[in-house]
Amino acid sequence: MDDGVAMLAVIVIFMLATVVAVGIGDRIRRPYPVLVSVIGLAVAFTPLPTLQIPPDLILPLFLPPLIYATAQRTSWRLLISRRRTIFWLAGVLVLLTVAASAATTYWAIGGVSIAAAVALGAAVAPPDPVAAEAVAGPLDLPRRVITVLQTEGLCNDATAFVVFGVAISAVETGQYSLPSAVLLFAWEVIAAIGIGFGLGWIATWLQNRLDNVTARSALTLVFPFATYLTADAFHASGVLAVVAVSLYIGQTGADEAGVNDRLTTNAFWDTLEMLITGLAFGLIGLELREVWPGADRLPAYALHAAIICAVVIALRFAWMMSVGAFMRRFGTYGYREGYQDDVARDWRDDFILAFCGFRGLATLALALALPATTPHRAELLFVAFMVILVTLVVPGLVMPWIVKALGVRKEAEVEEEAIQDLAYRASRAALRRLRQLDSDEDLPTEVVQRLRYTQRQLVAELCDVVPEDLQEGFEQRRMHREIRNRVEAQMLEASRAEVLLARTEPGVDPEAADQVLRRLDLKSAHLL
What we know:
The chain is mostly helical.
């Protein structure tokens, strides 16, 4: 089999494995990225070819769409409210991890240079936003914990990448400059946000001028890559630029076109994100073959990797458990009632946050980017790979037990209250618009009263709280509506079956049949 075809077969195998892992993960309550990584580890010891992806292409290929999808689930307001999270976790903790792991590497691995040790420290320091979202997301954790992990992961790469770049420059030239590193960090952040906003404006402008829903959805795939590459060309942070463009685009879409875009784009991105995530984490496992040492070197490599892993994990636990408690005690950081920067409410949240320091794609790509002339490069790669495995696969498999033992669960009452607040806010906006239209157009009184009543019913259904004056007959109306929807769904099912049958008959235009099917499908979606 040709090498190109063989590598394509590996990609298809991992995509299929991802689909299977999703089903298995749902049954055994384990995150599918971890299961795919385990499959990759197993495949690494088979004759299947390894995906030969150049190190400088790993991040541009995988990160843009995954970062874009993750950033779509947050907002600028939330990131601003989490500024303390960004400072303490994406800034200070990353730098401390770089320093601690670099010092340990320099001490443990004889002959490694300080610059190379710092480069490894920068590679293993940042927890991965994709891993955090994919592994911790399905565990029914409180939103405050998930958003902390998202915020940390979306912002810490800028710190780690700058340190890594400075360290690599020192490896190659033997020189480094702290002021230059500070200026480089400022440029990476400011330029990335500017590029993201600029390309976000262009993307929105193009979307408003495209009538085709599919084309507008495709645009959301193209622009993350375009943004990452543009930022990289200007030596800015590609990750932050993609976050910025995602948040900018996410602010649009209040009109009817936006509704259609969300229905189409969400389905498109759900599938795309699942497959790319599975392929990326499969690649992590598959790379084991490339870094696995010979039997004569394995004991020493494993010992050094175990020591560095222990330092990385212990530092995160010590930081989370001590700093979280300290800041809550003095009320400047952490959870305060009604305060949005509620990083952790108690020690159990601190423990979960410490446990969720998953390393992933960024660590893999940075480690592989070490120059070929770096002394002890093979051992440094092995250490980085072991850090990924120990912080990703092991926690990912035991996290459900940890969460259950600690009793940390999604707070249904808090989230339901948030939903009710937004539903009432949306209703007030609708009623204000109704009053404005009534004033401008002098609408018939019966129409206005009916719309007011319908709006109140809608809010009651969204909030699952029925006002007293609507309680009489409300359950009966709800039951009738459910019966009507159930019967109409079966009628639509019969219609679709008839159209599908007609589509196979001679003389029937398949294009016309597909158009009718699409309209029937949209009608079915309105029943949901």
